[in-house]
Amino acid sequence: MDRRATLSTLLGRSHVAKAQPIVESFQPPVLGLTPYSGAFGFEQAAHLLRRATFGAKYAEIKAAAAKGLNATLDDLFKDIKLPDPPLNYDYATDPSVPVGSTWINAPYVRDTSTGALLHQNYRNTSLRSWTYENILNEGISIREQLTLFWHNHFGVGDNQDPKFWYQHITLLRTYAWGNFKELIKKINVDPLMLRFLNGNQNTVNAPNENYGREVLELFTIGKGPLAGPGDYTNYTEQDIREVARALTGWRDQGYNTVDANTKVGSFFRISSHDTKTKKLSHRFDNREITNGFDKEHETVVDIIFSKSEVARFICRKLYRWFVYYEISADVEQNVIRPMADILIQNNYEIKPALRALLQSEHFFDALNIGPMIKNPLDFSINFIKQIGWSALNAADLANRHRAFNTLFREVGNQQMVYFDPPDVAGWKAYYQEPAFYRIWVNSTTLQARMRLTDRMATNNYTVGVRTGLNVLEFANSLPTPTDPYLLIEDMVSVLLPQSLTEQQMTDLMNAFLSGTPDYEWSTIWTNYTKNPGNNTARSSAETKLRNLVKAILSLPEYFLS
Q: Per the confidence metrics, is the pTM higher than 0.90?
């Protein structure tokens, strides 16, 4: 199946079916984790940054190509400090949090007449805009992509206390490329997870197996083929019950609290813990877990991680996030298993294994450049980061906050709501066979995507005032803006994963100049650059550039990564 042709049909653009086909199901030559030895030029740097970040500008891609692959990977995995906490952007009636201060440790207030909890809504919108601000200001770092990866992996949703969310997402950022085993130990007792999967209700007298089931099936080792009644090859129903018993006794605290002295956290209640010995099945070598009180949950993780399938399970998920959804027998043997070996050799540190994948011959195989349908966040953020959007540079804190929250809603309209994945398994595009990434594009989300790019490109996007993409600055950032042919080529190289056909380039030129002779563009651009304050000169150049950017962003190729 030719994905470009399919998207072209949905978009009503028949000519793009002439593009070099990218098939939906292919068998690429699997070169495994052999380090990439080919040229690392603009195309390869753009591919790496497109997958590892939420988009890079032309200058950033050029700089990466000049540095080389290893130095760029060093930048992507460079330790950076955690972002400053979210603020009260513009809500003036919270007695505990003045405007411009953070709310992450501040209590709530209850309405004395209705009992309703006050100040929660503005903190939720603050958390969302803060998250999008971090994504848009990520620089050359893989951390935000990995934070979203882990958010999808653990699938927590449906929680109303933004203070709990802040602690959870900060945990994911902290361990973005860190130790997977240690992250699971932290997740076991994370206050948000305790509430989400009822770990806070798991007691010796009333065991709750929700988290015990998901930590095995979704978070660590995964469900294998059914080998018998209650036997999922990698674990059994017996293991779920015994793991749940080992995790009894944990409680969260600080949820929606009005007490300034009660902080968000978790604690262990000995009286609620099952102190008897737990006996695992043959899938875990009939291991026994003796009473370890508040450390017992860590013993559980150590036992689970003694099985190499844990490494293969998480490596498959990383592969589907950063490379492609289809894992053939060759990919399993030549990519997943060696990657898992690296993970195990490094005691489950994510960085060495993921770095090996991103610097492999397989990652840079031509067939792996451009086959992935972008998720809504990538789709919406990529072009904004690459081209620029004036609303994000507003001097006023409240206006920037409004712009970030507007983007949050736009991505939600495309059926990807940060802080609310639809299921504990995450977004379906990363696990639902056989559609996988194609789930992102349907009649509803397609219109939402096109509406966003069209309005942004044509300066018809409203965030208090009409605004749009910084097309003049974008053109000026490219090496030869006076030459219409080279200008289009450079824009395409930044915004799209692969080159276009001759017919597509002709169509873009027609959309750009609208019948104006190509040689006149140089005059139009020069007039603008010499007289940037002249509204007529500015408008003449800007209008044509907006038409060009709109045409590029409407191509099926922009949907791909």
A: yes
